[in-house]
Design goal:
Aminopeptidase, 35% helix, eight-stranded mixed sheet, 7 helices, 199 residues
Length: 199
């Protein structure tokens, strides 16, 4: 079985009470850029990288979104912008990838670690902009993702990934009833990445 089954439509959008998830495309470049740059220090910890740099440009962001859209069209990975209900403000992003491919890229062998997954397992990461944390939109987003994956996606397993820096998200996951399943080291730092699933 492939990561995403041939012939099965890929969901294009999902709504919660205060959020609208839709495919991440270049038409939201400016909205996405504003959210990124507001939250850039936290996003560097989230990604365990230097992205986005202080001098990251709007054009650079547009190119990233072009790549995300192509990955979506190729059914290789699925990125979604998280907007407010009328689409006038970006509140964050969601990224859905093949678990097996993502783990190979990160140099982690889950089977050797005793972590058994299916061929179609997905790994998910997300962020919300700094100002959205105070309103609890990350909790609403996580609850919405649980529902979305149960009702509209074909994955047999959905695995959420965070790193040591994301203590807020760790508490969020545990409050939502997600269970820690495994940890693996980062390829670029001394950090550990942590994998969570529903029980």
């Amino acid at each position: 079985m492939t990561f995403y089954p041939e012939g099965v439509p890929v969901p294009v959008e999902f709504r919660t009470a205060d959020l609208w998830l839709r495919v991440l495309r270049p038409d939201v470049t400016e909205l996405d850029y504003a959210a990124l740059m507001e939250s850039r220090e936290r996003l560097r910890l989230w990604s365990d990288s230097t992205w986005p740099a202080d001098d990251f440009t709007l054009e650079g962001n547009k190119q990233d979104l072009v790549e995300h859209e192509q990955e979506w069209e190729d059914r290789d990975a699925f990125a979604y912008t998280v907007l407010n209900p009328d689409g006038s403000r970006c509140e964050g992003c969601v990224y859905i990838l093949s678990f097996a491919k993502s783990m190979r890229h990160r140099g982690y062998d889950p089977v050797a670690d005793g972590f058994q997954t299916s061929d179609d397992a997905a790994v998910v990461s997300f962020w919300v902009r700094e100002s959205a944390l105070a309103t609890g939109l990350d909790r609403q987003l996580l609850a919405g993702l649980h529902e979305w994956f149960r009702t509209e996606w074909p994955f047999s397993q959905v695995i959420y990934r965070i790193n040591d820096h994301q203590q807020h998200d760790r508490r969020l996951f545990e409050e939502a009833g997600l269970v820690h399943r495994a940890s693996h080291p980062s390829k670029s730092s001394a950090l550990l990445w942590h994998l969570y699933m529903e029980p």
